[in-house]
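User: I'm new to structure prediction. If I give you an amino acid sequence, what do you actually give back? Let's try with this one:
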Amino acid sequence: MKIRPYLFTTLASLGLAIGLATGTPAQMEMENGTMGASQSTGQFQRIEQPLWTKVAVTGAGLGLIGLELWWFLLSKPRSRQASATNGVQEITVTVDGGYDPSEIVVQAGQPVRLNFYRKDPSSCLEAVRFPEFRIARDLPVNQTTAIEFTPTQPGRYEFTCGMNMFRGTVEVQPGAGGFKGNGANPATV
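Assistant: Good question. You get back a string of structure tokens that encode the predicted 3D arrangement of the chain. For your 189 residues, that looks like this:
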């Protein structure tokens, strides 16, 4: 009983494919302003285009290729140093179609507070995750959400949106006192 619908659909698809494959396509051409049946030559006919059209299309294509190369290979993400206030390194990250700044520089061994202000209502950016610090936090629209942690080891730590589409990094540099730790501590919020 369950095979019957699949069998019918398969036979209908097969019949349609055979019918399309054996049919002859209609070929038309303009002859002195009237449409008429053309003789089958088996070759494509060249359509002449003005030179300016060819130049415009080629220029637009090369421009788009150049823009893609710049966007994916040559553009650098914005990087900012967190400012230290009362012993806490703090910076505000605007969440609007991504993270701005997307690269944050902090010192190891000092507490960090990242204030995420979300403007973008898209569902992808409704959360932020710091896998190395075991932090996952929801970001309400038009509100600031503070995330605090203390990195103990220099390195680059990635943060992402809930769907892993938008990314940013926290670059932890060795502290002024040459602090050496054994890794990243979990959040302290």
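You can read the tokens as a compact description of the fold. Here is one thing that stands out. The chain is about 25% helix and 35% strand.
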